[in-house]
Design goal:
The structure is a single chain. The chain is α+β, with helices and mostly antiparallel strands. 62% of the residues lie in helices and 11% in strands. It contains 24 helices and twelve strands. It has helices spanning 2-28, 39-58, 62-86, 89-92, 96-119, 124-154, 158-188, 193-196, 199-214, 227-256, 261-279, 283-297, 304-315, 325-334, 376-382, 388-393, 406-410, 443-506, 510-533, 550-560, 581-598, 629-634, 651-661, 685-701; strands spanning 342-347, 353-359, 386-387, 414-422, 425-433, 546-549, 567-571, 576-579, 605-612, 615-622, 665-671, 675-683. The strands form three sheets. The protein has a five-stranded antiparallel β-sheet with strand order 2-1-5-4-3. Helix 10 (227-256) packs antiparallel against helix 11 (261-279). The radius of gyration is 48 Å and the shape is elongated. Its EC number is 2.7.13.3. One of its GO terms (molecular function) is kinase activity.
């Protein structure tokens, strides 16, 4: 029965070894160049060793197993010779060939003896002598092989040893196992079945060594389990050991308990189960296990990839259900140290720190001035991370310069103080609640906290910049409205000033008085329209769009410049448009006035109205100084950029926005020294009706 047990184990190891060897040989076949001239022989030796494992596993007979083992040894001896030849030592080391030939002769002699013994029947005494001779032959080959392996590695140049380390280790393990096996067989005068069962394990070690030697990247073969897998595996092992120990103790109690064995066993199982239910879910126990595993199983305390991914997931989460940024900042740092809560302090109006957010720490009382301004310079200058336990004990570094508020020192749950520094400017501080498994911070904790603190500080600074930009945008909108109002008031003031100067000269003339009344009425209407438009100047909107004759707008503009002979009406068409009368008049008046300002006093400015497609085309053409393409593209429609002394630089921008609000567009053609052409396109009334009918039909179909 014992032999059958060890035979089963040997069968499992031999089959596994054969599979591993054949797999490696097949995988290595297209990569023979990795071992140079020895590649073909290594693949052949791997296949032959796999065949030997199968022969041993199948129990095909002593002679078949012996032939397979001899073939295996001869193949690996040839591999050793080719490895010697790869660096030229086969020509300089004289004993190599004689030793190899002697070992090959021993193997062949051994095969001959085995073949003869398999054909002739002997009594038990002769069989015992033959067994000892066979064992001696094997010992000679294994010892010779180990000597060759030692010389192969020890005599190799230093730069070659790295390539020979794993092959030499694999062969040494294979023959060292055989050396011990045959030595025990010789001394015991019998075949040690218990030890021979593990020969397949030696073949598996050989496979692993050659796999490491074959891999292009040795580091890829290193086992690097993640911290989560290690912790879970260790937890399962602890649970398994616990269950085994509990069963063992229960069995012992059942044997030693006498009449009360059953009662004692059940009582122990009940007590052990109760203890397990209390202890195993403990966060303190899990924290202790993580610390122990990180300390003894890994080079670094943290899995930086996992920590970084968790940090970015926490700090970058968005959506309706996500926490505010301040709470996410605290959580992203607290999660690293298993801290259950924390606070975020940010600068207030006076520069001292005030409470900005709290995460899972509602019971701590935070004063209005959480951190005085005078104590912040040290943290801003040094980025010092304060372990508050050291501060309470008076052992903190830089304790003479460090000032921590009393409310933090009095609360024993306050554990750490992390400054958030961005470009040498303190943008906040995070206070961490004490973890259940509190520990001392080390250099790795401080390094990670500094990196995370800088990243968090950049998020806070970016968020503050976005808020300041939004506020600035609102102020800009307000200032733009005021600038538009001032621009219109300036134009009205110019009209009133001109009217006052002309009144001093022509007040007694009835025609002037009639014209003055018209001007005052128009100015009053413009002022009322300006007041009505104050609420929509920021987006260039118009009061309302209506159908109106385009010629009426054109005639109003011409009346505005009736006293100036430079303005010439070149062409007009009777068309109806959809727009806003006052806004369109304002745009055309501004364009004509700009054309006059850019032209010589005797140079005409042409105003025309034509039809182009579905739009009415208002054109203002002058032959003035003109504009460069760069000015038209980058400066003409940019607010608050003006070439006029005392100008606001918003006329062209406002004109374009008003035209866009009427669903039209404003085009510019200009060349320096030749003049400019401004073209205003406004939709025809008929086109507007067509668009509206198409839209209503689409809605009905939908």
């Amino acid at each position: 029965m014992v032999a059958g047990f060890w035979g089963t184990i040997g069968l499992a190891f031999d089959l596994t070894g054969a599979i591993a060897l054949a797999t490696l040989a097949i995988w290595l076949w297209p990569r023979l160049d990795r071992f140079g001239n020895a590649g073909v022989w290594i693949v052949s030796a791997l296949f032959i060793t796999a065949a030997w494992c199968l022969a041993v596993a199948s129990a095909s007979g002593v002679f078949v197993s012996s032939v397979a083992e001899s073939a295996r040894n001869l193949a690996w001896l040839m591999v050793i010779y080719r490895l010697f030849a790869s660096d030229g030592r086969h020509a300089t080391v004289a004993p190599i060939r004689p030793v190899l030939l002697a070992l090959a002769f021993v193997e062949l002699l051994h095969l001959g003896v085995d073949f003869g013994l398999s054909r002739v029947a002997f009594d038990s005494s002769v069989g015992r002598v033959a067994f000892e001779f066979n064992v001696m032959f094997r010992l000679l080959v294994t010892v010779g092989g180990l000597v060759l392996v030692h010389n192969l590695y020890a005599g190799a140049p230093r730069e070659v040893r790295g390539e020979l380390r794993w092959p030499a280790t694999g062969l040494a393990v294979l023959w060292a196992f055989d050396l011990n096996l045959y030595t025990i067989a010789y001394l015991a005068a019998r075949w040690p079945v218990e030890i021979a069962a593990f020969r397949g394990l030696a073949a598996m070690v050989l496979t692993a060594c050659f796999a490491m030697a074959t891999a292009g990247n040795r580091d890829a073969l290193k086992l690097r389990p993640s911290r989560a897998v290690t912790f879970q595996t260790f937890s399962l092992l602890v649970i398994g050991f616990y269950l085994v120990a509990m069963v063992a103790v229960a069995q012992w109690l059942s044997y030693a308990g006498g009449n009360f064995a059953r009662l004692i066993e059940l009582a122990f199982l009940t007590l052990a189960s109760a203890v397990a239910l209390v202890v195993l879910p403990s966060r303190s126990l899990r924290g202790w296990l993580k610390v122990i595993l990180a300390k003894h199983f890994f080079q670094h305390r943290y899995d930086y990839r996992e920590e970084w991914l968790r940090f970015t997931r926490t700090i970058g989460s968005r959506g309706q259900t996500s926490q505010p940024l301040g709470e996410r900042v605290v959580q992203s740092i607290a999660d690293v140290f298993e801290s259950p809560g924390g606070l975020l302090l940010t600068p207030g109006d006076q520069g001292d720190l005030t409470l900005a957010a709290r995460w899972n720490w509602p019971e701590i009382e935070v004063p209005a001035v959480a951190f005085p301004l005078r104590a912040l310079a040290f943290f801003e200058r040094t980025g010092f991370i304060a372990d508050l336990d050291d501060t309470r004990a008076g052992t903190a570094a830089n304790s003479s310069d460090l000032e921590v508020p009393r409310w933090l020192l009095d609360d024993n749950r306050a554990w750490a103080l992390i400054p958030l520094v961005h470009y040498e400017r303190l943008v906040g501080m995070v206070v961490l609640d004490r973890a259940q498994l509190a520990r001392k911070f080390d250099w790795e904790d401080f390094d990670l906290l500094r990196v995370i603190g800088q990243q968090v500080a950049s998020y806070l600074s970016e968020n503050a910049s976005q808020e300041a930009l939004a506020e600035s945008s609102r102020f800009e909108d307000f200032h733009r409205r005021i600038a538009f109002v001032m621009h219109d008031i300036k134009n009205l003031a110019s009209q009133f000033s001109l009217l006052a100067r002309n009144a001093e000269l022509h007040a007694d003339k009835p025609a002037f008085r009639a014209d003055m009344l018209v001007t005052l009425r128009n100015s009053s209407e413009k002022l009322n329209a300006l007041i009505a438009r104050l609420s929509r100047y920021g987006n260039g909107a118009v009061d309302k769009l209506e159908q109106l004759p385009a010629t009426d707008v054109l005639e109003t503009v011409m009346d505005r410049f009736r006293s100036n002979p430079q303005v010439v009406l070149a062409e007009k068409r009777e068309v109806a448009i959809t727009g806003n009368r006052h806004s369109l008049e304002q745009v055309l008046v501004h364009l004509v006035q700009n054309a006059l300002d850019a032209s010589e006093p005797e140079s005409p400015v042409f105003l025309s109205l034509t039809v182009e497609g579905l739009h009415a085309r208002f054109e203002v053409l002058d032959s003035g100084c003109g504009m460069s393409a760069d000015f038209v593209r980058n400066r003409l429609f940019k607010p608050f950029v003006s070439t006029k002394s005392g100008g606001f630089g918003i006329g062209a921008f406002e004109a374009r926005e008003l035209v866009r609000a009427m669903r039209g567009r404003l085009d510019v053609e200009s060349r320096e020294g030749l003049g400019s052409r401004f073209i205003v396109y406004v939709p025809l009334a008929a086109a507007t009706d067509v668009y509206q009918n198409m839209s209503s039909q689409d809605q009905k179909v939908a």
